[in-house]
Design a protein that fits this description.
Elements: E1 5-11, H1 16-24, E2 30-36, H2 41-48, H3 53-66, E3 71-75, H4 79-84, H5 103-117, E4 123-126, H6 136-145, E5 151-153, E6 161-162, E7 170-171, H7 173-182, E8 186-189, E9 196-202, H8 205-210, E10 221-225, E11 229-238, H9 243-258, E12 265-266, H10 280-288, H11 290-297, H12 302-306, H13 319-334, E13 350-352, H14 359-364, E14 368-371, E15 374-378, E16 381-382, E17 389-392, H15 401-412, H16 417-420, H17 424-428, E18 434-437
Parallel strand pairs: 1-2, 2-3, 3-4, 4-5, 5-8, 8-12, 17-18
Antiparallel strand pairs: 6-7, 9-11, 10-11, 13-14, 14-15, 15-16
Helix pairs in contact: 3-5, 6-7, 7-9
């Protein structure tokens, strides 16, 4: 489809080596990952003991450095851990029954750490109460309560639900979009759902357990890995004649069309949870072609149509806005100064499409793709194989933290601390790719 970089959004620290090995098997594209914190016992122990912010920063920096990551992801902050203690939900200001800390406290601590360490990509947040009717209030409170710190809220569609109407399920897209427009420190990706069979895969084991009754077909699995976090996988089918699924589709598109700044909203289907990423060309057409969008809308569940304002929204994305949302803005968000533009010093990752009125057809098959200046696709066919780089950041930390960490590893984990650390050589020693250390944006304490 013409993309030259892809980032894994949730790497468990103890499983990072396996994640990098799998990413290495993918040619051409650059890659990187966001290391997953927020339900790990070591962090929660530090917070329960009221450790100072500097110690939290050191732990975050140590973890991101030795996981070879470029950002920090939080999934259901504290909730995956709370699930182990038989809590089946955890609201923003509800305490983890074992550690006594709240999701809000976790988000503030980690957002401060990311900012103070100078990590370009803001804290990447999968918030509380995913998929729960009424969760728009939690989402709005999360935005308001982060204190102006940079924060990226992921798959925002799944966090934009109200409780109005006969079905007690309604769109909160207008309120969420208004808040995004107002809070300039907030960026989002949408997590658009599209109809058909897919599979949901998430570190949010609490939510995956709650949703297992809706699995299609009726199979599911959830697990915990090394006290760091969880993982749940279940198959799911989105149906266009389901009121809930149809309205979810509309909520995602409403959010895309009501958020004003294309530099702060990004094209995602929360692959594979909303739909596979191969459906991006179809999604782009929905955003760029109101007539096509309303044709699809007219075939969906009639009561869902009545509950949405989508048909009345006239906006159509321009090619310029699509380029920002899928390339320039995304590169800027992650901190890749030499990607997403054609300026001096750029990496010469270039994709060429033939203009076509059917935007889905246009974006499905590029004419040419250049990776670091080398042509790898011509007339839609792969003609060369290159190996992209792995993007990382390496913030500084006080090495004395390893004294405490070694004791923790020895007592509680099956992996020794020395084996946890991924060396630079491991990333590049197979000859497939390289390691690129991105600069930090040091701004001092906040």
């Amino acid at each position: 489809m013409g993309y030259t970089a892809g980032f894994e959004p949730a790497i468990l620290p103890s499983n990072a080596r396996q994640a990098h090995m799998e990413m290495h098997d993918t040619p051409i594209i650059d890659k990187g990952g966001y290391v997953m914190l927020g339900s790990d016992d070591y962090l929660l122990r530090m917070m329960a003991a009221n450790n100072d912010q500097e110690s939290i920063n050191n732990y975050v920096a140590w973890t991101i450095t030795h996981s070879q990551a470029i950002g920090v992801k939080v999934v259901n902050p504290g909730g995956i851990n709370a699930f182990k203690f038989n809590q089946r939900k955890l609201d923003l200001d509800e305490k983890n029954s074992f550690y006594g800390v709240t999701p809000r406290e976790i988000l503030l601590r980690l957002a401060r750490a990311v900012k103070e360490l100078g990590i370009p990509h803001p804290l990447h947040v999968h918030g509380c109460n995913l998929g729960v009717p009424g969760n728009m209030d939690t989402t709005l409170d999360t935005m308001d309560g982060i204190g102006g710190l940079p924060m990226h809220m992921t798959h925002i569609q799944f966090h934009s639900y109200g409780t109005e109407g006969d079905y007690k399920f309604s769109s909160g897209a207008a309120e969420i979009a208004e808040a995004i427009n107002r809070h300039k420190n907030i960026t989002v990706d949408v997590g658009q759902i599209l109809f058909g069979q897919t599979v949901t895969a998430s570190g949010d084991s609490m939510h995956q357990h709650a949703g297992h009754a809706h699995a299609h077909p009726n199979k599911w699995v959830t697990m915990d890995i090394e006290c760091d976090a969880g993982c749940g996988v279940l198959p799911f089918k989105y149906k266009d004649q389901s009121f809930v699924n149809a309205l979810q589709w509309m909520i995602g598109l409403e959010t895309f069309l009501l958020v004003e700044d294309p530099w702060r909203i990004f094209l995602t289907t929360d692959h594979p949870n909303g739909a596979p990423f191969t459906s991006y060309p179809h999604l782009i057409r929905l955003l760029m072609d109101k007539t096509f969008r309303n044709e699809v809308l007219s075939r969906l569940h009639p009561e869902a149509q009545k509950a949405s304002r989508l048909a009345s929204i006239d906006r159509e994305y321009s090619l310029y806005e699509i380029a920002i949302m899928t390339r320039a803005g995304a590169a800027k968000l992650v901190g890749l100064a030499d990607r997403g533009h054609l300026g001096v010093g750029g990496a010469a990752d270039i994709t060429v499409y033939t203009d076509h009125a059917d935007r889905e057809k246009m974006f499905s098959k590029p004419d040419y793709v250049f990776k670091d200046g080398r042509m790898v696709v011509k007339d839609g066919d792969l003609i060369d194989v290159t190996w992209g780089t792995t993007h990382v950041v390496k913030p500084e930390y006080d090495k004395s933290i390893e004294t405490s960490l070694k004791g923790y590893f020895d007592k509680y984990l099956t992996m020794k601390m020395g084996n946890f650390k991924i060396s630079d050589d491991e990333i590049v020693d197979d000859g497939r790719g390289s390691l690129t250390i991105q600069p930090l944006h040091k701004g001092g304490p906040v």
